Amino acid sequence: MIFWVDIVVAAPAHSTIAGPLTYHSEHLLELGQLVRVPLGKREVLGVVWALRTDSGELDPQQSKQVAGTLDGVPPLSATWRQLIAFTASYYQRALGEVALAALPPQLRELDTTQLARRLKRGKTATESAGSAPSPATLPELSPEQAQALKGWAGDHRPALLFGVTGSGKTEIYLRAAAQALEADPLAQVLVMVPEINLTPQLQSRFESRFAHLGAGQVVALHSGLTPAQRLKSWLLAHTGQARLVLGTRMAVLASLPALRLIVVDEEHDPSYKQQEGARYSARDLAVYRARLEGQALAQEGACRVLLGSATPSLESWQAALSGRYMRLDMASRIGAAAHDSGPEVRVIDMGHQPRHAVLAPPLLQAIAERVARGEQAMIFLNRRGYAPVLACHACGWKSQCAHCSAYRVFHKLDRTLRCHHCGFTERVPRGCPDCGNVDIAPLGRGTEKLEEHLAELLVDVKRPDGSPVRVARIDADSTRLKGTLQTQLAQVHAGEVDVLVGTQMVTKGHDFRHITLVAAVNPDSSLFSSDFRAPERLFSLLMQAAGRAGRDAAHSARSQMWVQTAHPGHPLFAALKRYDYPGFAAQELSERLAAGLPPFGYAALLRAEARTQELAQAFLEAVAKAGRQARLPGADRVTIYPAVPMALQRVANVERAQMLLECDSRPALQQFLTAWQAVLTELRRSAAFKPLIRWAIDVDPLAI
Ligand code: ADP
Ligand code: ZN
Ligand code: ZN
Fold first, then answer.
1. Which atom in ligand 1 lies closest to the alpha carbon of residue 140?
2. What is the pLDDT of residues 550-568, one digit of tens each?
3. 523 in ligand 1 pocket by Cβ < 6 Å?
4. Per-residue CA distances from 389 to 78, 411, 572 (Å)
5. Of 206, 316, 422, 499, which residue has the fewest beta carbons closer than 10 angstroms?
6. Distance from the alpha carbon of residue 355 to the mean position of ligand 2, in angstroms
7. Mean pLDDT, rounded, for 345-371
8. Can you give the pTM of this predicted structure?
């Protein structure tokens, strides 16, 4: 007897293999089963996607035979397969690419014996289990927390937990997770965070609260794991042994057969959007997945989703305003007096400060006072390196990257010019490469220069014990080596640092106890950016940064957040001073509504890369034209804008262009894009576009 099956395998992007391939087998296979199949000259991992019933018409000579099955690994569920199919179709990628990318890479490499050993090892790991912590040992809920949990229990809709920094959102996540786990002895909970390395405290709070579950039942799933660790976590999740999975965006596609709750912490964070391959939004997929899991159980609300943020994405906020999501509000910080939502915000008008001052004198004074009192200050600037450009004043030469439309950044420590886009690095030349002038100088400033500058300015300031001030820097450069970030953070926590300089990396979820002053040195570039989401991101960044100050109630009264700007009258700062996210959101949403931008309109980008800008743009224009001529479904509602160079036009000698599509209807845009794919693939194969390097569609892009 021969059985016919359709199997999904990894296919290169935009290859001719769009869907599953048909194979035959001598054994009856199960849907969702993992198998090895021949593909070309190789043997690859595949997932059984459909059992064919039209076998009478098929010819064994025309198809290959399944080489083997991964015994011991249970089949992937129908819900998981639906999630993958939705992701592939919504984000316009090949099914096989999405399915295989969601599986741990090591699954492709291990043979059956090795795999059996891994599975066995996983089993023994989960046996030690104690009992849940008694309610008496848990922190007593604040009235707002109790109210939020009541709201959560009384409604099945996706919930948006709108809680200021320090309001105790994590406790809500912990309780919601505990409830879900207690309600069903098999239930699984997925907790997603933007970047695990930046939120070690959250991870440890979950681990200690659920320590009674035993090792192997609380697992992490993120790209920082070794391939072996990742396989182990994935197998524990897939076999249902892991009850609680803590992960980054990739975890939203993990196999979790008994998923009952998905928590998305800092749901507004841009890192939930994948920026290559299938450009999915893990937050949006979390909401979709919870609904799907509920449908599979034929019970509304059987799988819940909880999104949390102090500054929600405008998409989620609008969904809450419209009633699609419920809102749970927590407006005050734990332990703080009523109406104390955060440190006092001071907006400094840089137009009234000495010209070329990096730090306004009153700010410098305030920092010095903190140091003298033994408190800490945190200064952030969104640019690493010493100076963004090195320039020659004699002839106008600038440290342009030879391969990108960007300047190379001057790093003083190792005296290099480094391109932050392609990595091209050279030693700083002795003199100007064009005119020989030896007097080439840095323009502007980065974190490295700010650190140096601060150390000079504060040289006479003494700490309470009379010792000199200690300035430290945390950014992608200072933390390049594995483990250095943790060491540096530990130093800040231990009080070994007085002034911390960094990029926005330092504003993320660290719970620094002794910081009483936070300053944003140069936030203006985001105010008038062409990217419509820039103000939203800036507001959220500043609110989050403000939340770093005065975490310790003892200091909260004299904590401050300073913002240096040339536009002190900007409404964004007015809202910031009041900690008025709803006010800021109302203003932004009215502008978005007027312009038909998300969340009121839907957008997609088509991008193309080629050796020349002309070719990249010509491809986009040709695709647009062919799309119009073909009268594709949905086309009458989709606006296609002209092709333009991307903001960063050239990277590593590759020219990049993009084309924006807008539509007032999500289904219409979906229909159109799906039909358009065929046009794209065909044009790509025509002789004129052979030299094109690649193209990609980005649905719901973050930046336009
Ligand atoms: P958020 O995530 O909303 O910024 P956290 O969850 O980090 O806030 O809580 C802020 C601080 O308050 C943490 O140190 C946490 O341990 C503490 N906390 C939270 N809930 C309570 C509570 N009910 N009682 C006492 N302390 C609490
Ligand atoms: Zn010169
Ligand atoms: Zn470069």
1. 23
2. 666 566 677 899 999 999 9
3. no
4. 54, 10, 29
5. 422
6. 26
7. 92
8. 0.91
DSSP 400: B
Cα of 383 from ligand 2 centre, angstroms: 25
Per-residue pLDDT band at 198 (split at 50, 70, 90): low
Q: Whose CA is nearest to atom 16 of ligand 1?
A: 168
Q: What is the pLDDT of residue 629?
A: 87
- The ligand that comes nearest to the alpha carbon of residue 330 is 1
Q: Which domains does the chain have, with CATH numbers?
A: 3-102 (3.40.1440.60), 125-330 (3.40.50.300), 344-384+446-594 (3.40.50.300), 387-444 (no CATH), 602-699 (3.30.70.260)
Task: Tell me how long the chain is.
Answer: 704
Strand, coil or helix: 108: helix
Q: Which of 334, 552, 581 to mutate to test the pocket of ligand 1 (most atoms within 8 A of CB)?
A: 334
Q: Rounded mean pLDDT of 508-525?
A: 83
Phi, psi of 30 (to 5 degrees): -100, 150
**Distance (Å) from CA 391 to ligand 2 centroid:** 8
User: Is 171 near ligand 1, meaning CB less than 6 Å away?
Assistant: yes
> Tokens 């790093």 sit at which residue?
411
Nearest to 232 by CA among 152, 133, 120: 120
- Tokens for 606? 């088509």
Contact between 315 and 598 under an 8 Å Cβ cutoff? The reply is yes
Q: For residue range 666-695, what is the model confidence (pLDDT) as tens digits?
A: 999 999 999 999 899 899 999 999 999 999
Reported as a pLDDT band with limits 50, 70 and 90, residue 315 is: very high
Query: For the segment 96-123, what is each residue's pLDDT rounded down to a tens digit?
Result: 999 999 999 999 887 777 887 877 776 6
Mutate to test the pocket of ligand 1, among 165, 170, 307 (most ligand atoms within 8 A of CB): 170
